[in-house]
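HOLO CASE FILE
Compound: adenosine-5'-diphosphate
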Amino acid sequence: MSSIPTGQFITRSAEETFELAYRIGEAINEPTVFLLQGDLGAGKTVFAKGIGAGLDIDPAEVNSPTFTIVNLHDGPGVRMRLYHLDLYRIAGGANEVYDLGLEEILAEPEAVIVIEWPERLGGFAIPNAYRVAIDDLGGDERSVSVYHEG
Ligand code: ADP
Ligand code: MG
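Model generated. Tokens follow.
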């Protein structure tokens, strides 16, 4: 079992959010799914970069490109492969999610999966995930809640 820190955290800069996610990424040692929710600019991608860094992935590679919905990060030295999904641009609903191949990705034995905009999953349920909710408290302050869902 991974010993992923959970609870509510307050961060006061992008670096602090990155550092929190980095510690979570470092703790991962089995396939894990993270559902990152929060408004545009909340810090979901910053958090995804931190998780990547904790898996020994170059955080500069983890971003939200305009046309790609699923990004795979893997290679020599990477501790576990990371699938980073940004569902912002899909209309949502189970059919579109099936088309992305998410079922196959979820079946991979050694993958970490980070999903931005999980609201778009619609009825496509992902059991046993970590829910990360990021709220902008004003300025550079964010509330970051990390909870395991059954
Ligand atoms: P999202 O993916 O949720 O749309 P991003 O991670 O792309 O958001 O962007 C978050 C923006 O907010 C970045 O410009 C980042 O520098 C800024 N920011 C300021 N304070 C924080 C914080 N405490 N945590 C995360 N990001 C922060
Ligand atoms: Mg983003």
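CASE NOTES: The chain has a mean pLDDT of 94. The longest strand covers residues 130-138.
CLOSED: yes
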